[in-house]
Amino acid sequence: MSYNSIVMVKQVPDTANISGQVMKADGTVNRAKLPAIFNPEDKVALELALQVKDRFGGRVTVITMGPPKATDILRECLYMGADKAALISDRKFAGADTLATSFVLSEAIKKIGKFDLIFSGRQAIDGDTAQVGPQTAEKLKVAQVTYAEEIIAAKGKKITVRRKVDDGYEILEATLPVLITVIKEAGEPRPFKAKRVMAFKNARSLLELEKMADTNSLLSVDKMKEDYISKSLFISTYTLDELKIDPQRCGLAGSPTKVHKVASVKLGGGEHESIQPTKDGLRSLIDKLAADHIFG
Amino acid sequence: MKNKSNDVWVFLEQRDGTPAEVSFELLSKGHKLAATLKSKLVAVVLGHNMREVAMKTFQYGTEEVLLVDHPALENYRTAPYSDVMNELVSSRQPRIILFGATFVGRDLAPRVASFTLSGLTADCTDLQISDVVYQKREYKDLLLQIRPAFGGNIIATIITPDVHVQMATVREGVMEQAVISDAGPGRIVEIPYEPKPLHELVKIIERHREESAVNLKGASIIVAGGYGMGSKANFGLIHELAETLGAEVAGSRAAVDAGFIPPQRQVGQTGVTVRPKLYIAIGISGAIQHRAGMQDSQKIIAINNDPEAPIFDICHYGIKGDALEVIPMFIDAYKNELK
Fold first, then answer.
1. pTM to 2 decimals?
2. What is the distance of C-alpha B280 from the center of its chain?
């Protein structure tokens, strides 16, 4: 049997490479200064979905919620081998916590239609919460397997997955449909295929077409959309209206958690004893620690 | 309107019937929070043959245990556990629920938050109760959920002002266990479990538990390396120093991401929290993400060639120099001094 997969991906600020310019004087983060990247574990999730497709057949649809710029990572998904990509984007979705995010994602997935498997990375590097996967599964009323390390087998309506747990691993057999969150060790994302880069580098989401039309009065969005659809270069786009969902459950309005305070982590220079990087310096340090009964 | 309560709940996590240490840490913290709120501490215990464990929670100040005991609940599985919790939380509306930020807690808590539309904050490093003014409205006795955010570059205080149930997961080892000397016996409320077909959609085929060879939490000395070590080959020096000192080896998240060291040896917000007698941080800049996991160490030595590295703000002894030169000197000096 073949399997239809949906992969949830996210474009994230590259929090691993934060330089001085990124941190503002008040300790908050200047997001505009951070490069936006494909969340690493989501890329591994896509890899696993593509492996399922390679082994058993089926289709892989990738979705992301984010600003129009997030279309960048959808194109990357197409380059890797995804069959279809959809952008979920609306100003009203901005400022969402994990609950509001999972609500919008689950509604978009209902709209996209039947699926056997949903994949996502365990967590995104900007929040590290690992909440959106399980929260989406709960809203869709499907089973979940988190921290997946390996898809062992799939047969009929059953999939066997190895997952990491605190002190070892478990092998689970899940009845489809199931949502699987994937850890980094589960696979190595495949490189872009040159042919697919050529084919999809001009793929555009509706919001990108609108932006193009904004800057050129000769272009009409409807006409362009038709044109892009006919060339299979249109990335479907779901807005609030399209999804027909309650704006009170989306974005900042639909988020129970609020950021009350953000504190700089710049520490006031704590006092420490400076040890010279010399033989004598180290010897005196070791003597001190021995006197404190830490060594010896 | 359902009856809301002001109670503080702790989800008691167990593995093969043995309660997880983090659950006792959370009960200890929960006891303090409940005292501030003048409410009661409730332990929620799911499993099989768990009565003894339920009784054990009393010594941490638990006044009431919600005990759901059934053979089908022997091992943690998402569906039955989340279904039971969803039902309990919906009907009893506690004010606060704490989970360990473990594989179990991070699997379970988001499902419960999603079902009950509660606020949930992951990986808190501190919890406080405080009155808050948020957007010109006054809120009494909110739970301040404090966690490093944004790759550990900022510390955020999260609140959930407009929903009743405030949920948080908390890292292992962050809160201290405290047995209450004059704890009275609490009461145990047995909740019946009803098996449902939906609970059996995921079956455990095999469980492989290994006594972890890595025991960072129990180590009295830890030598930790960061991205500043430059390469996996250079990281060998970290191992050499650790071996000399009889220490455990650890690493920062960046060192794990770079493949210098396996993830189970990661110290920090997304790794393990440790409190050894001595922590030697080498080539670690000291982002809050890392500091969250080691700043309570008794003594900290920092070795870094960047004199501006924030690690120097929290260390007791700072060595500004090239790790590749300092470590061999350190090893020699140690062998000479303590022979």
1. 0.84
2. 22
Domains in chain B (CATH in brackets) are 8-200 (3.40.50.620), 221-337 (3.40.50.1220)
**Residue from the list A18, A145, A263 with its beta carbon closest to the beta carbon of B155:** A263
Q: Is B208 on the interface with A (CB under 8 A)?
A: yes
Task: Verify whether the Cβ–Cβ distance B319 to A276 is below 8 Å.
Answer: yes
Angle at which helix B78-92 crosses helix B103-116, to 10 degrees, equals: 50
- This model of the complex carries an ipTM of 0.89
* B153 touching A (Cβ < 8 Å): yes
Domain count, chain A: 1
Residue B303 has what DSSP assignment?
A: E
A270: in domain: no
Residue B245 with chain A: CB contacts under 8 Å: 295
b (16+ CB within 10 A) / e for A262-282: beebeeeeeebeebebeeebb
What H or E segment, with its residue span, contains residue B122?
strand B119-124
- Please tell me which of the candidates A134, A169, A281 has its beta carbon nearest to residue B208: A169
Q: Are strands A273-275 and B317-320 parallel, antiparallel or unpaired?
A: parallel
Residues of the domain holding A190: 5-249
Q: Does A194 touch chain B (CB under 8 A)?
A: no
The answer to whether position A258 is within a domain reads: no
Kindly state whether B154 is in contact with chain A, defined as any CB-CB distance less than 8 angstroms: yes
Q: Under 8 Å CB-to-CB from B69, ≥6 apart: which residues?
A: B45, B46, B47, B48, B49, B50, B51, B190, B193
Q: What is the pLDDT of residues A118-147, one digit of tens each?
A: 999 999 988 889 999 999 999 999 999 999
Considering the domain boundaries, does residue A181 fall inside one? yes
A121 within 8 A of A42, measured Cβ to Cβ: yes
CATH of the domain at A61: 3.40.50.620
* Distance separating alpha carbons of residues A199 and B164, to the nearest angstrom: 51
**Is residue A287 assigned to a domain?**
no
